[in-house]
């Protein structure tokens, strides 16, 4: 459990430290965000999720990032780090490549949407009890996030939400058979062996 909360907790702590420094020193760090198609801000892929425009923005991202991050690392221990890294990088890259170019995109909401999407769709693709239970919980508590992928609210990077959701879906599909629940994997192996034996008898 301790290992599972280290990265999400560290990341959230860093978000808070950066915003506190920004607040007390009256800094505007939005230029560390992503300005799409601007080669000078491609480094924003790494820094944008750590920057927030207000305390409300920071607070709204803190709890979901902590909860979903911990669920990822506890439930998919062997996959969690690569999913976290790929979600982080691919979401930022797609925002840089395809989002509106008239503003800077900042905040961790793209990562949050990616985590929620991965946990949700892993339940559909993996179809083991644990994955389905996690997906059901995410759907119940975070199902309303789906509206965030639409351009309904000004000043919100709906592109980050959209590309984060797509990245999570893609990663869930790619890793759908990776490190499956051992009981389910054993059952599938038994089914394959049984079919092979039946084929031998019928041949």
Write the layout of secondary structure elements.
Elements: H1 2-24, H2 44-47, H3 55-75, H4 80-98, H5 109-126, H6 129-142, H7 158-174, H8 182-202
Question: Summarize this, please?
Answer:
With 203 residues, this protein is an all-alpha fold. The protein is 67% helix and 0% strand. It has helices at 2-24, 44-47, 55-75, 80-98, 109-126, 129-142, 158-174, 182-202.
Over the alpha carbons, how many angstroms does the gyration radius reach?
A: 20 Å
Query: How many β-strand runs?
Result: 0
CATH superfamily, please?
Rhomboid-like
Number of helices: 8
How many domains? Answer: 1
The CATH topology assignment is: Rhomboid-like fold
The percentage helix is 55-70%
Uncertain segments: none
What is the first-to-last residue Cα distance? 51 Å
Q: What can you tell me about this protein's structure?
A:
This protein has 203 residues and is mainly alpha-helical. The chain has a single domain, classed as Rhomboid-like fold. Helix content is 67%, strand content 0%. The protein has eight helices and no strands. Helix 4 (80-98) crosses helix 5 (109-126), helix 4 (80-98) packs across helix 7 and helix 5 (109-126) packs parallel to helix 7 (158-174). The protein is globular and about 50 Å long. The termini are far apart. The model has no long low-confidence stretch (mean pLDDT 89).
Task: Provide tags for this entry.
203 residues; mainly alpha; Rhomboid-like fold; 67% helix; 0% strand
């Amino acid at each position: 459990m301790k290992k599972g909360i280290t990265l999400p907790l560290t990341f959230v702590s860093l978000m808070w430290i950066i915003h506190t420094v920004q607040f007390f020193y009256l800094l505007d760090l939005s230029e560390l965000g992503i300005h799409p198609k601007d080669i000078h801000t491609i480094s924003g892929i790494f820094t944008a999720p750590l920057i927030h425009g207000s305390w409300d923005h920071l607070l709204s991202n803190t709890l979901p990032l902590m909860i979903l991050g911990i669920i990822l690392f506890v439930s998919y221990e062997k996959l969690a780090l690569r999913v976290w890294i790929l979600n982080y990088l691919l979401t930022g890259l797609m925002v840089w490549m395809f989002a509106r170019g008239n503003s800077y995109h900042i905040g961790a909401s793209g990562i949050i949407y990616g985590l929620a999407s991965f946990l949700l769709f892993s339940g559909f693709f993996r179809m083991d009890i644990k994955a389905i239970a996690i997906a059901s919980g995410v759907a119940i508590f975070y199902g309303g996030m789906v509206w965030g992928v639409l351009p309904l609210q000004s000043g919100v990077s709906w592109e980050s939400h959209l590309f984060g959701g797509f990245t999570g879906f893609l990663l869930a599909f790619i890793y759908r058979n990776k490190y499956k629940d051992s009981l389910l994997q054993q059952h599938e192996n038994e089914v394959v062996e049984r079919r092979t034996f039946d084929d031998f008898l019928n041949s």
